[in-house]
Amino acid sequence: MALPETVRFPAPLVDPDEPVDSARRYKIIGPGLVVAATGIGAADLVATLVAGSRYGYALLWAVVIGAVMKIVLVEGAGRYTAATGRTIFEGWRSLGRWTTVYFAPYIMIWGFVYGATAMSASAMPLAVLFPVLPLWAWAVIMGLVGFATVWIGRYHLIEKITAVLVGLMFLLIVGLAVYTVPNIPQALGGLVPMIPDGGVTYTLALAGGVGGTITLAAYGYWLREKGWDRPRFMRVMRIDNTMAYVMSGIFVIATLILGVEVLYSAGLAVSAGDKGLLELSAVLDQRYGTVIGHLFLVGFWAASFSSLVGVWSGVSLMFADFWGHVRGLENGHPATVTGGRYFRFYLLWITFPPMLLLLLDRPIFLVLAYGVLGALFMPFLAVTLLWILNTRRIPDRWRNGWFANLCLAVCTVLFGILGIYQAVEAVAKLL
């Protein structure tokens, strides 16, 4: 059967083997850093800290596996865009109408609930460091600063801001982990796969949940903004993605070390919510002094605010592309790129309506829908990438090899199990 015209890939305008000029070849601080930084937020830090405080280094292997799986997933999304010049939503749409039926409500509900969560997480360390304003006021300020940054800026500004924030959070959190003098032999023992009693949920969370959900799929959009959406940038894209998630893995390991050396070694525990990070800061204050505790809060803020800025940019691009195709616009239409009217509509949506949730209790239906739809996204991404990257939707040269297929199959199973856990948990919390 002939492939529908809407999903045929264009012939490359340049030889895919044509080397990238040297000025760009080594300019590898790119979209990978943005997507990795965006994916690590306060919830991921808390999950890692709690896992370290409960199980020591026993789940270190799960962090390593999780980093490898993120490399494979994001590389797949990037490879589709670089090989075809098309966005991931175009790939999803070629699989049938069901993808749009899932994605449309998901991106709207997700943005509404996540907007409040991101603003609150970014505000929490500031409310402790500068208690002149209440938490909700700092949250509104963080939302407005993120909104203004993304509204007036272009992708290159987002990339530079993210690089600064990543450098700050990497320096502080990794530096603090080194400062605690981790037990290296015990840490190496944690590379042996095992699941401690009662640790199934945390194992799944560390392997599958740390490092992003919908933002993983935003990678291809940032490639387009960067100008790397052509086959000649395939090698650069892969280096960019791999380096970014290696750094992400180191950062998560550093957070696990803090959980082990500061909490587990002292028999302490922190809350499972975002306040767990503030509790760790208080423990650091008591154990190492106020300066160390405050440095951790600055790292906490950098991680949270980099996620806010990245989401405001990347998910707005995804919505703009989605709505542009619903309206029949061509790929790359001015309304669907950074600064376009569809992009700005979603930027307004993710910033201002969620501010109401900072003052009110979250509506039960929205929280439930957010939890269930969000839990389904990672298996959705893994399954659709398996489908897209093994068919005529991508040129033969760039289709999956056996290793990519194996990793994506494992991702599908793992994220499917994790999704069921998360969906059941979301329902249970509201019953």
Automatic annotation (TrEMBL):
<feature type="transmembrane region" description="Helical">
    <location>
        <begin position="55"/>
        <end position="74"/>
    </location>
</feature>
<feature type="transmembrane region" description="Helical">
    <location>
        <begin position="291"/>
        <end position="320"/>
    </location>
</feature>
<dbReference type="InterPro" id="IPR001046">
    <property type="entry name" value="NRAMP_fam"/>
</dbReference>
<feature type="transmembrane region" description="Helical">
    <location>
        <begin position="95"/>
        <end position="115"/>
    </location>
</feature>
<keyword id="KW-0812">Transmembrane</keyword>
<feature type="transmembrane region" description="Helical">
    <location>
        <begin position="401"/>
        <end position="424"/>
    </location>
</feature>
<protein>
    <submittedName>
        <fullName>Nramp family divalent metal transporter</fullName>
    </submittedName>
</protein>
<feature type="transmembrane region" description="Helical">
    <location>
        <begin position="201"/>
        <end position="223"/>
    </location>
</feature>
<dbReference type="GO" id="GO:0034755">
    <property type="term" value="P:iron ion transmembrane transport"/>
</dbReference>
<feature type="transmembrane region" description="Helical">
    <location>
        <begin position="341"/>
        <end position="360"/>
    </location>
</feature>
<feature type="transmembrane region" description="Helical">
    <location>
        <begin position="244"/>
        <end position="271"/>
    </location>
</feature>
<keyword id="KW-0472">Membrane</keyword>
<dbReference type="GO" id="GO:0005886">
    <property type="term" value="C:plasma membrane"/>
</dbReference>
<keyword id="KW-1133">Transmembrane helix</keyword>
<dbReference type="Pfam" id="PF01566">
    <property type="entry name" value="Nramp"/>
</dbReference>
<feature type="transmembrane region" description="Helical">
    <location>
        <begin position="28"/>
        <end position="49"/>
    </location>
</feature>
<dbReference type="GO" id="GO:0015086">
    <property type="term" value="F:cadmium ion transmembrane transporter activity"/>
</dbReference>
<feature type="transmembrane region" description="Helical">
    <location>
        <begin position="135"/>
        <end position="154"/>
    </location>
</feature>
<dbReference type="GO" id="GO:0005384">
    <property type="term" value="F:manganese ion transmembrane transporter activity"/>
</dbReference>
<feature type="transmembrane region" description="Helical">
    <location>
        <begin position="161"/>
        <end position="181"/>
    </location>
</feature>
<feature type="transmembrane region" description="Helical">
    <location>
        <begin position="366"/>
        <end position="389"/>
    </location>
</feature>
